[in-house]
Amino acid sequence: MAFYQLGMDGCRNLEAQTQIPFLQRDEVVDGYADYQGYAIKRSESGGWRSASFILVSGSLERFAYFGIESNLISYLTGPLGESIATAAANVNTWIGVASLVPVFGSFFADSFLGRYQAIIVASVIYILGLGLLTLSTVPTSLISVSTFQGRDIVAQILFFVSLYLVALGQVYKSCVQAFGADQFDGNHPDEKKAKSSFFNWWLCCLCIGATAAHLILHYIQDNINWGIGFGIPFIAMKIGLVLFQIGNRTYHFSARQNDADEILNESICQRFIKVLPAAEDSGEAITTKTNGAKIFLRLLPIWSTCLTYTIAMAQVSTLFTKQASTVDRSLGPSFSIPPASLRAFIALSISFCIPIYDQIFVPIARKITNFSTGITMLQRMGTGMAISVMNMVIAALIEMKRLKTAEDFGLVDIPNAAVPMSFWWLVPQFTLIGLTDVFILVGSQEFFYDQVPTELRSLGLSLYFGAAGTGNFLSGFLISAIQKATSQNGRDGWFSDNLNRAHLDYFYWLLAGIGIFGFVLFACLAKSYDYEENAPKENFQP
Questions:
Q1: What family does this chain come from, according to its entry (predicted)?
Q2: Is 230 in contact with 134 (CB distance < 8 Å)?
């Protein structure tokens, strides 16, 4: 509740500081309509008033999602009895699908349904998947792990079907975030600043849900009952949908949403089908027809460099969690922290850093650079990529210490024994993940949202999720390929089930090298990138 109050206080403070003149001016908001399709006045809808419903429902959705995702590898290696390499690949594949679904779903939302309707449909699918997931785990809650191998195959099929229904429901992510940003008019100076802050507070509020999941749900799942641990997210998602619909009368709906399909057909299809424009076409007409495709093509190089960061981020849900399961996680004589609960430090780090960034750093930087966002979006992304590289170096050094400690205490061949090394050693790598997200996650989402036409912003925002999904697929491929190559002739591979004989440190060093390559390439691309819509030209220095 403290973090929730912090987020809401920040929102109110932002309005108080700017005095938000659009609440005092009863003017019609151009390009937007109310839920009935009528013109709307600035004083009656939109802004933080509408965004508050979206922020709370988004927080509940992240509570549900991380209640499944962050402890999934424990379920697969525990009740399902999978090996670490197989489970890690399966988790990466599922997260990859869940991250790529918003790309295709956003295309459908922008072209046909509209963002609001897409959010409702995705929520229903999401809730159905969570309900079936809960039912699929009930048998495992009543029997021991040793007898689990003989469970009904139907229950296993139901588990994976429901899991991928949850992945299908991730269309919700990009649509609801784009819909939340739509509540601020980018053509109004004060609302434009508020829109930039929305992306910061969006992440902050999502961390409230994530923190609750890490601290509450994972303890229930590991120590009480998997069925209850999956059932609570089901209830949370239903509450989130109800709250989202309560704010219906206050929302801004884009009056140009129905033009998205026409824009896609005209700008993208004609770009590739009509190679040579008609001679009578004016230069301005040609520019209009091809502008949409050019924008997406210009974003691809920047997008591709983000993959080097998302591959590293994919380890949080897999190897970081398994690494945490091997160390001493005790707090006091009788309580042990669940491995997945260490991810709470990511959310806590974000919740601590976002207010500092938004309320202290941005105003100071704004006075120096004269940019409304303090620093440019690509500068923010580049800073996050640099922190990510540093984090993988730290993770590799900590893993080297863990392996040395296991060797010194004779625990190399006792994989189930806790290495006498406090979990606090792992806290820095989780905390730095949060700091990385403050820069690159928010920066990239704002960048891809801002650099596409208004009617296609759900699709633009989904580019980040597409990068995250592709990064997870690449991570799963790397893990499988490296394990196969390093475990030949009876050797222990880098991802041996006995982590005391594995070499996660080698893999972390490899990811650090990939990250350095991506950062250098990103810096070169950023220096020559020209923003759309009169945004400031990038001047990023590596």
A1: Belongs to the major facilitator superfamily. Phosphate:H(+) symporter (TC 2.A.1.9) family.
A2: yes
Give the Cβ contact number of residue 300 at 10 Å: 9
Task: Give the residue carrying structure tokens 């120096």.
Answer: 368
Tokens representing 143 are 């029997």
Can you tell me the distance from the alpha carbon of 69 to that of 163, in angstroms, rounded to the nearest whole number?
10
Query: pLDDT tens-digit profile of 475-518?
Result: 888 988 998 899 888 788 898 888 898 999 999 999 999 999 99
Query: Tokens 């400690």 identify what position?
Result: 405
pLDDT < 70 stretches in the chain: 1-26, 28-39, 41-45, 110, 138-152, 186-187, 189, 254-293, 455, 458, 532-542
DSSP state letters, 168-188: HTTHHHHHHHHHHHTTS-TTS
- Only one residue has tokens 């970081």, namely 320
Take residue 429 and report the two structure tokens written for it. Answer: 């790598």
Q: Which residue has the tokens 């403070």?
A: 13
CA distance 209 to 218: 13
Distance, C-alpha 307 to centroid of its chain: 13
Side by side, the strands of the sheet bearing 39-41 are 39-41, 28-33, 253-254
Other C-beta atoms closer than 10 Å to the C-beta of 211 total 25
Among candidate residues 241, 233, 197, the one with its CA nearest the CA of residue 51: 197
Helix, coil or strand: residue 537:
coil
Token readout for 478 is 């790397």
User: At 288, which amino acid appears?
Assistant: T
Q: Angle 160-161-165 (CA atoms, 0-180°, nearest 5)? A: 115
